[in-house]
Amino acid sequence: MLNKLHIATYNIHKGFSHFNRRVMVHQLRDSLRALNADIIFLQEVVGEHKGHGARFENWPESPQYEFLADSIWTDFAYGKNAVYDEGHHGNAILSRYPILRWDNVDVSAHRFESRGLLHCEIGIPQWRENLHCICVHLGLFKRGRSRQLQLLEKHIEELVPQDAPLVIAGDFNDWREVASRILVQRLALAEVFELTEGRPARTYPSTLPLFRLDRIYVRGFHIEKAQVHQGHPWSKISDHAVLSAQMILR
Known about the structure:
One of its GO terms (cellular component) is membrane. This is Endonuclease/exonuclease/phosphatase. By secondary structure, the protein is α+β, with helices and mostly antiparallel strands. The protein has one domain (4-249): Endonuclease/exonuclease/phosphatase (Deoxyribonuclease I, Chain A), CATH 3.60.10.10. It contains seven helices and twelve strands. The chain has helices at 25-35, 52-55, 64-69, 142-159, 180-183, 192-197, 234-237; strands spanning 4-11, 39-49, 75-84, 87-95, 99-106, 116-122, 131-137, 166-171, 190-191, 214-219, 221-229, 242-249. The protein has a six-stranded mixed beta sheet with strand order 3-4-2-1-12-11. The chain has a six-stranded mixed beta sheet with strand order 5-6-7-8-10-9. A hairpin with an 8-residue loop joins strand 6 (116-122) and strand 7.
């Protein structure tokens, strides 16, 4: 049905296993394909790294977002956030549907922690309004996260029509679960696991999730199913679990 949407979010840990022991992007690509999601929000995606290709025999020649999208997700966008001598990494969105426009907004709280909001506008056949998707990876410190949430609120109010369907997903690093005060109370969004389970899902560390760091917030959808993907093979791929949601457009 064209009014159904299946999305997922994953912090991929730059394509490495825990403690950066092994390159996991090949297993990651296979596992993402098995999810069969329409749109995937990714964090800690390597766009370029000059040293990894020489150091690791199975390092992909193309940027990770292209390698992961391959022929399954025909459209993708990448927001470069952290830039260093060897290369850069950031957020990415992979989509089965056309990405009509996109922008990456710098919300870095300080020069030691580069962060961005990757905003894509996606055209889905027969939908009256375009779908707005924002992939986030917020900072580690409370003051920085508060500022980033304020910037996210301002960005949505200015650029996302109130009647347009909206999905915000990613790694919020929100240990104290305060993000909903802005996203739910002020912007009329709903977190999918708060709706289905009463609280955000535990996602970190992936071997035995204790902390509720990753979220999916939506506006304009009914949630059919929300799921945490943990255990094998996911716990071998990254230190975060995967979240997915199957939704119906209202």
